[in-house]
Amino acid sequence: QSVLTQPPSVSGAPGQRVIISCTGSSSNIGAGHDVHWYHHLPGTAPRLLIYGDTNRPSGVPDRFSGSKSGTSASLAITGLQAEDEADYYCQSYDSSLRGSRVFGGGTKLTVL
Amino acid sequence: EVQLVESGGGLVQRGGSLRLSCAASGFTLSSNYMTWVRQPPGKGLEWVSVFYTTGGTYYSEAVTGRFTISRDTSENVFYLQMHSLRAEDTAVYYCARDFGPSRYMGALDLWGQGTTVTVSS
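The joint structure predicted for all components is written out below.
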């Protein structure tokens, strides 16, 4: 049971927009802690997609965007491409255990 | 080239010990927080431990008291010493560079390829 809750799967057709939600609580997202998002293909190193709720590292297309409100955050992907098919994880800091980082359970994105 | 390379994974019996290494190149480990993350088979990413630039160390509840994170600044390598291993510790272990101590602490911008730990019962 992950501290941050994500839908197990989402899907969309090429060119469409999908949103992946990440729901936390008052000790993590709701406390104002930054939310970060990762793209992960099995057998490879995860890749940072969004940091500090809304910021994209260099090299990440602007098709990817992040937002946060209250105890939840979202990752939006527009103009879906076949190469976007992967697992996506949100991550934040949790005040309940000092130093603790927490991940969401992950969302499998399928491009139809 | 800026990269992280893990090593030390393998097959170990329940109750045994293993030490993972993470060698950094292209940057100095002591400038950033460094983190271990694992992924059990068929499951999601799980945060394990972090080493702060101040020397502070923190662990997830699942590994507290059994795992120890450390670093060797002269070799630019950091470690995860694992004791009393359990079947549920079976996972791919990744080391990762944290943005900390800068503004966006917690964001992991550089990851290794992972090393596999299998605990047999």
